[in-house]
Amino acid sequence: HSSKNAGLSTMSFQNPGPSTMSFQNSGPSNMSFQNPGLCNMSFQNPGLSNMSFRNTGLSNMSFRNTGLSNMSFQNPGLGNMYFQNPGLCTMSFQNPGLCTMSFQNPGLSTMSFQNPGLSNMSFQNPGLSTMSFQNPGLSTMSFQNPGLSTMSFQNPGLSNMSFQNPGPSTMSFQNPGPSTMSFQNAFHLQGEVVYRVYLPPSCGKWYYM
Predict the structure, then answer these.
(1) CB-based contacts of 19: which residues, under 8 Å, 6+ apart?
(2) For the segment 20-40, what is each residue's pLDDT rounded down to a tens digit?
(3) What one-character DSSP code corresponds to residue 192?
(4) Phi/psi at 117 (nearest 5 deg)?
(5) Is the dihedral of CA 85, 144, 100, 184 positive or negative?
(6) What is 169-190 written as a DSSP string?
(7) Which bin fits 190, alpha (ψ -120 to 50), beta or left (φ > 0)?
(8) Overall average pLDDT of the 108-116 stretch
(9) Which listed site, 12, 71, 79, 129, has its alpha carbon 20 to 30 Å from 99?
(10) What pLDDT is attached to residue 98?
(11) CB proximity list for 64: less than 8 A, separation 6 or greater
(12) Contact, 128 vs 98, CB < 8 A?
C-alpha cells in the first residue's frame, strides 16, 4: 500500500471521532507514506481515541518527506498515537528533502514509538531541514526499544534534529532489550567525524565519542 502526496494541496489523515484510526502493514509488501509534492502531509489525532501505525508483517513501513513542504504527526487530542514495529521488517522515518518532519504531542495523551520486534526502527534526517520531536503537552512522549534490533536516530544532513520537552510531562528513551539505541549526529570537524550522543533529558549533558 502506498499513500503519495505529489500534488499541489495538503493530504491529511484526521481522527476526530471516538474510534481508532489504524494503519497496519501485515502483508508481504511495503507500506509507504510519501510527500514529494509542494504541500503538507499531516497525520492528526485530535479526537478521543487512538491513531496507530503498526508494521507486523514481512515488509517495510516507511514515511518519506522528499518534497518542498512539511510532513507532520500531531496528537493534540485525548487518545494515544502509537508507532509500533513488532514484526520482522523495518519501520523508517526519512526526511531527505527541503522541509520539516515533525512529531508533536501537545495534548493530554501519549505519543509512543515502540520497536519490540526483530528489525530496525530508524529516524533519518539527511536533508536540509529539521526533524523535530516536541512534547509540550501534559503526557508522555516515549521511545522504547525492547526488541532484538536497533532503534536509531541519525542526523547526517545539514540541519537540526531536535528533541524538545518544554511541558510538565516526561520524554523518555528506554532500551531494555539486548540491542542498541543510537543517536548519531555526524559532522566533519578538521577532517574527523564526530558523533554527538544525546542522553535522556534528566542527564542534561552532551557526550562526545
Answers:
(1) 49
(2) 999 999 989 999 999 999 999
(3) E
(4) -90, -150
(5) negative
(6) S-EEEE--SSS-EEEE--EEET
(7) left
(8) 97
(9) 79
(10) 94
(11) 32, 33, 34, 35, 36, 94, 95, 96
(12) yes
Q: Would you state the cell numbers that stand for residue 78, as one nine-digit string?
A: 485525548
DSSP codes of every residue in 44-103: E--SSS-EEEE--SSS-EEEE--SSS-EEEE--SSS-EEEE--SSS-EEEE--SSS-EEE
Eight-class DSSP state of 17: S
DSSP 8-state secondary structure symbol assigned to residue 18: S
Q: Which amino acid is at 186?
A: A
pTM summary value: 0.88
Kindly give, in sequence order, each residue whose CB lies less than 8 Å from that of residue 120, ignoring residues fewer than 6 positions away: 90, 91, 92, 149, 150, 151, 152
| DSSP symbols for 104-157 | E--SSS-EEEE--SSS-EEEE--SSS-EEEE--SSS-EEEE--SSS-EEEE--S
**Could you tell me which residues come within 8 angstroms of residue 47 by beta carbon, excluding any fewer than 6 positions away?**
15, 16, 17, 18, 77, 78, 79
Half-sphere exposure of 5 toward its Cβ, with a 13 Å CA cutoff? 24
Q: What is the pLDDT of residues 161-193, one digit of tens each?
A: 999 999 899 999 999 989 999 999 965 434 333
* β-sheet bridge partners, residue 81: 51, 111
